[in-house]
Amino acid sequence: IYDISLYKESASLKGHTKGVWTCDFHPTKNELVSGGNDNSVILWDVTSAKQIKSLPGHSNAIYDVQFSEDGKLFGSCSKDLICVWDTANLSKPLDMIKQTKKEKTFIYCLNFFDSDSKIITGYIDGTIILHSINSTAGDDTILTLPCDYATYEQEDDQYAKSVFSITKFHSKPNSILLSHSDGSVRIYDIKEKKLELKDSFYYFTSPVTCAKASEDDKRIIACGKDRTAQIWKTDSHEAIDYTLSGHR
Length: 248
Prior knowledge:
Blueprint: E1 2-3, E2 8-9, E3 20-25, E4 31-36, E5 41-45, E6 50-55, E7 64-67, E8 73-78, E9 81-86, E10 95-98, E11 107-113, E12 118-123, E13 127-132, E14 141-144, E15 163-168, E16 175-180, E17 184-191, E18 194-202, E19 208-213, E20 219-224, E21 229-233
Antiparallel strand pairs: 1-2, 3-4, 4-5, 5-6, 7-8, 8-9, 9-10, 11-12, 12-13, 13-14, 15-16, 16-17, 17-18, 19-20, 20-21
């Protein structure tokens, strides 16, 4: 954890036994959740830099963790399982959602949706699925992305349509921001169980691993495997300042 104003590390959270893939801050409490290659999900107290609880449930690496908007729930996903956790009762998952797709694919990212009553997940084959929490598999809604993808020679075809991250807009409850392995960042509206493409950003020459919107939704920041990050104005696509480089 870094103090941005001082450009210094303020805490180091030690507990994972293998690489850490993902983490997310609680929206109101001084807590953080993380997941990694050791198949574990860990909830942390940021102030003391100590574990609150290590959570069982997954048998594969954790690719994404996210808190709900009010912080009462958080979700974690491994390749074939989503766990939804209630922060008031961490003895067991509130819900466990198994992958229902038959193809050889896996879940890569997630977020909460529809007033936190649903989990939206992204798969490496480009599929988006809405899962109702504490419901049956029959209530799942499969949303196919309505667009074409470029395939890079250096990328395996299996990953050509991958969805690497799902972010919600703060002022647009039915809009989502997706980052893709074809080098694009795309905005979609979810309407009547369909995905409607609203806008696209093509500034990367490599897969985009993560994209997020600012609090006022006027800016988008994205980072890619080309070791850079870029910031754009959402409406005009105008690049802000310059490409952020420095990672090797």
